[in-house]
């Protein structure tokens, strides 16, 4: 099954930049596609995720927030 990871973040967020770099590395090693979205571009996203960015989604479901838990993410993508 092909997975997709999304990092919900915002411009100027240092934790978001760190999460994106970690997700890019992990997904690159596993051959999993990923993307980032700015929560401030959509009022629903801002309401849902705005206080917890970065939020990591795996296949559209919330996987975690604030920090990437590498072992847990790898298990979800295995």
UniProtKB/TrEMBL annotation:
InterPro entries: Glutaredoxin-like, Thioredoxin-like_sf. This is Glutaredoxin 2. It comes from the Bacteria.
